[in-house]
Amino acid sequence: MLTVRAPATSANLGSGFDVFGVALSGPADVLRVEKATRTTLTVVGSGSQYIPEDPKKNTVGAVVDELDAPARIRIDKGVRPASGLGSSAASAAGAAVALNELYDRGYSREELVPVAAKGEAVATGEAHKDNVAPSLLGGFTIVADGCVTTMESDLSFVVCLPDVVVSTSNARKVLPDGARLDELVETVGNASTLTAGIARDDPYLVGRGMSDPVITPARASLIDGYETVHNRAVEAGAAGVTVSGSGPGVIAVCPDGLQRRVAAAMVGGFEDCGVDARAYQTGVGEGAQIVRNERNSE
Question: What positions does the domain GHMP kinase C-terminal occupy (predicted)?
Answer without folding.
Answer: 197-266
